[in-house]
Amino acid sequence: MATGGKRRSLLASAIESLGTPAPAATPEVEVEERSEDSTPSDDSETAATHPSFLARRAQSLGEVSRVVKRPTIKLKPSECSIWPGNARNYDDLSYDRCESLINSIKEEGRNREAAVVRRTSEGPLQYELLVGTRRHWCVSWLHANNHSEVEFIARIETLDDEGAFRLADLENREREDVTDLERARNYLHAVEAYYGGVRLRMADRLAIPQTTLYSFIRLGELSDEVIAAFPDTASVKAAHANKLAPHWKVEVGRERINAEAIAIAAEQAERRSNGEKTIDASKVCDRLIAAAKDKKTRAKDAAEKAPPPLFSSGGDLLGHVMADTAKKGMTITINPTELLTVDEILAALRPAIEAAKFAKKP
Q1: For the CA atoms of the chain, what is the radius of gyration?
Q2: Around Cβ 268, how many Cβ atoms within 10 Å?
Q3: pLDDT by residue for the chain (362 residues), tens digit each?
Q4: Do the Cβ atoms of 241 and 215 come closer than 8 Å?
Q5: How many C-beta atoms surround the C-beta of residue 109 within 10 A?
Q6: Are 12 and 68 in contact (CB under 8 A)?
Q7: How far, in Å, CA of 177 to CA of 41, rounded?
Q8: What residues does 127 pair with on adjacent strands?
């Protein structure tokens, strides 16, 4: 049995264990429940070690129960607009990324695993694609390349945006070709759009660990400059964001990381133009962290924040003005680097005291 079919069977079993019957209907087009564009998942192993995992996921994602045996219809790709709430970026799809799926669909004459759409009265087209972006892109490509006979198979669901997001996320998290960055930006949008900014609620609704959600949101919060420093968007991982997080949350750290990212992106562009290998993602991450912790930059910052020095009339260091406020007064440390007389010290202090903020009170 193919991986996708195995995953569907496990989900169906979980749904049955919850006592949630799937709607009975005779499909207009019979579609074998096997995924040609899915990647191996560890759901079977997880179910063995944690028997309630699939049941809890199916319960939290009630929409799944309605897509296991839903009737299918034939649509033209041109009849569907793409729902922007899906994680996958349609514009990033290409023949190279979809070649194996294109060949599979062409051989079968249709997509084996049905896409999921919903009817919409407000959109530009009658249907809106919720799940199956790659399948839609592949059939569209085949139609544009002399294979108009290929069918696009879909199920119609009635879902609000939050339900559509959860269903699409369940599908996408099983597929390795959905990048961490796509998922991260999708989560960053969803937590505000559907969950009022409450991350705990979102993690509960998606049935994923809070730490997993927070890692992806950290990645989604990274700037475009940082993302551009990496070899490509697929190479940027949530693990990189976790390593950068302690420095990114501090303003000066963000500034340093962004500055270094711009420099790295320029290097990457030059390497590409010269046909050289780009700097790999782990080294990019290391350089960004090093920039945030740069000792020279920190020394410069420390020097700028250092207390103002006091000098004698002869130019010798006398001490520092540690504090100078109108409310709490002035604090001075006196520690001459050279042997000075009391008169010389008092002469040096006089202008500092006259300029003190407490001395300027109205």
Answers
A1: 30
A2: 19
A3: 444 554 444 333 333 333 333 333 333 444 433 333 333 344 444 444 444 445 555 555 454 444 445 688 999 999 999 998 888 888 888 999 899 999 999 999 999 999 999 998 777 889 999 999 999 999 999 999 999 999 999 999 999 999 999 999 988 877 767 899 999 999 999 999 999 999 999 999 999 999 999 999 999 999 999 999 999 999 999 999 999 999 999 999 999 999 999 999 999 999 999 999 999 999 999 999 999 987 655 545 545 556 677 777 667 777 878 887 877 788 888 877 777 788 888 887 888 887 777 766 55
A4: yes
A5: 12
A6: yes
A7: 13
A8: 80, 119
| Beta partners for residue 82, in sequence order | 129
Residue 116 near residue 154, CB atoms below 8 Å:
yes
Structure tokens that stand for 241 in this block = 């964001």
CB atoms within 10 A of CB 113: 23
Enclosing H/E stretch for 103:
helix 95-108
Non-local (6+) Cβ contacts of 317 within 8 A are 309, 310, 311, 336, 337
Q: Whole-angstrom Cα distance, residue 291 to residue 285?
A: 10
Contact 145, 104 (CB under 8 A): no
d(CA 311, CA 264): 43
Distance CA 1, CA 289 (A): 45
Is pTM beyond 0.90? Reply is no
Identify whether the C-beta of residue 198 lies closer than 8 Å to the C-beta of residue 188.
Answer: no
- What gap in Å lies between CA 328 and CA 173, rounded to an integer? 58
Q: Which two tokens stand for residue 201?
A: 């609620």
Q: If residue 73 lies in a helix (H) or strand (E), which one and from where to where?
A: strand 72-75
Work out the angle between the directed axes of helices 210-220 and 199-206 (0-180°, nearest 10). Answer: 120
Query: Cα(237)–Cα(243) distance, rounded to whole angstroms?
Result: 10
Residue type (1 letter), 216: F
Cα 188 to Cα 18, 181, 197, distances in angstroms? 31, 10, 9
The closest of 85, 81, 86, 71 to 127, measured between CA atoms, is 81
How many helices (H) and strands (E) are present in the chain, helices listed first? Answer: 15, 8
Residue 118 — φ and ψ, nearest 5°? -135, 150
End-to-end CA distance of the chain: give it in Å, rounded: 87
